[in-house]
Amino acid sequence: MTVTDWRDAPSDVVQPLLLAERTRVLDALHWDLAPALRLVEHARQRGDVPGLILRDRAGQPAGWAFYILANRTLQLGGLHARTAAGLRLLLDRVLASPEAELAQGVSCFLPAASQSLVSALE
Q1: Could you tell me which residues are beta bridge partners of residue 69?
Q2: What is the pLDDT of residues 52-104, one digit of tens each?
Q3: Dihedrals φ, ψ of 82, to 5°?
Q4: 32: buried, middle or exposed (CB in 10 Å: 19+, 13-18, 0-12)?
Q5: To which H or E segment does residue 106 belong?
């Protein structure tokens, strides 16, 4: 698996990831994230929101994450992967980012879609 900066990815790669996140949250919490995810996508295209895409051996997206640094807190806005190893790899890369190095704390609001996510965050 490889990890790439999502700011370098074309919209047609990122849009399905955001749509899947919208669907997951809508199904789990009955919240429609569409307006927020549109803002995230616009900011991503401007290069203002760091994030990562995890790619499988065929180069297809197998996971993704995005985050920001706000008030010295690293805020995870999304974190999803098909496998536990993928989740851990993404989280390790986020926590090794320049934004994380400046952070004094971490914050996230992520649906606990799997035990792997809960374990990785712990």
Answers
A1: 74
A2: 999 999 999 999 999 999 999 999 988 888 888 999 999 999 999 999 999 99
A3: -70, -25
A4: exposed
A5: strand 105-108
What's the rounded Cα separation, in Å, for the pair 6 and 18?
12
Q: What is the pLDDT of residues 15-24, one digit of tens each?
A: 999 999 999 8
Amino acid at 6: W
**Cα–Cα dist 41/53, whole Å:** 14
**DSSP secondary structure string for all residues of 6-22:** GGGS-HHHHHHHHHHHH
pTM, two decimals, is 0.89
d(CA 73, CA 68): 8
| Angle made by CA atoms 69, 72, 77, in degrees to the nearest 5 | 35
CA dist., res. 29 & res. 40, Å (int): 20
In whole angstroms, give the CA distance from residue 24 to residue 50: 21
